[in-house]
Amino acid sequence: MPKTQRAQDTVDQVNATTESELSAWTLEETLSFGGAPLFVLRLGNGLRVLLLPDDSAKVVSYFTWFRVGSRHEKPGKTGLAHLFEHLMFNETEGLKAGEFDRKLEENGAESNAATWLDWTYYYEALPSDRFGLAVTLESERMARLVLREPQITSEKEVVANERRYRVEDDVEGAANELLYKHAFQKHAYHWPTIGWMDDIKNFTPEDCAAFYKTYYAPNNATLVVVGDVKLKDALTKIRDAYGKLAAAALPVEDTTPEPFQLEERRIEVKKPTASEKVILGYRGPALGDNDHPTLVVLSEILFGGRASRLYERLVIEKELVTDLRGWASTFRDPGLFEMFFYARGEHTCEEILTALEPELARLHVDVVSEEELTRAKARLELGLLSTLDTASGKAEQMGFYDTVLGDPVGAFGRLAAYRRVSAGDIRTAARRYLHAAQRTMVIVRRDGAPSETAESAEAAQ
Fold first, then answer.
1. pLDDT confidence tier of residue 454, bands split at 50, 70 and 90
2. Residue-number span of the structural domain to which 422 is assigned
């Protein structure tokens, strides 16, 4: 492929000025990302780089994905991955507190970060002539973050307040946390990404330093660069900034698979809410499993828009709920097929379940119509392609599929998988996953203090 050869020639030119093997580039492969060449490279210290040149606008999106999330924590130390999302915007050896954000703002950039079960990312979107600033700042905080007591104490309180706001004082947040706490009893998906409150309060500088040294290393990171950049310039800047960073001795992940669920688990709580709510979590496949695209299409048939089955039945016809939605979790390991229902007025969870069960049972027997299948696929395709409209959207999709599945162009593989789903596949997936014995249910009643069941659940962390 000519573009691959030109890229290799560029890599050879940059390597001719390289001082050590740690800062030498390897061009691993050239892929097609929507018809454009995506270069997959690696530095000698293990840093992985996905580079997609795109000169359609004078902007560049710069993501740093770390292969660490809450699944990599241990009981008693939950929430460390999320705490680092906050700590990474603080002081480094070369930057005072607040300097990171100030420099980006002065140069017309925006930045943010996110942490979840399987990953953590940081990103900047900035004018392409400021590309070097992102490289400098991100390499600085990858290797030279300051982790002293004042900074850690301050951010712990910020995270504790975030937990109060998003979980303890939020009905849906609290219910979702209960769902995962009971649905997963062995796997690390059991605890929330934000962490348990006692763990957050008890983090020490030593805990943070050990976590940083273990996971924030070039050989545990992938840079995703999309935008108006030249290959030679990008490789030179990244090499000069990251090439002297040492690789870490990454631990072998100690994952405990979740045992097969044999009976329904039901949790009931009372919350200050205007109406009752029910959340269901059926055992679901991992993102990389063959069944996952089929379950996503099934979720779209049931929940996707006003023409979906359950919207028509439960909102329009029976007027039982005001809101509903479903989601097949996009995790590296098997997750949940979640269903959320918010009762209308005085209607109860029992009424919702009575109306829901026949609709789910019907999926085991009948095949969905061609019209439903076509509409669901069209909605999914539009939604996915819409995320690729911008440089940041492309970079995020690329980094996500690379981090979770090891496939930078996985978004296009998903499109092909959605298109292949048949009505028979939908029925088979329903028969495989939609069984009461394989689900966890959280019922939220109105008002009052938490019930005995909820208090027991809180004590069972």
1. very low
2. 265-459
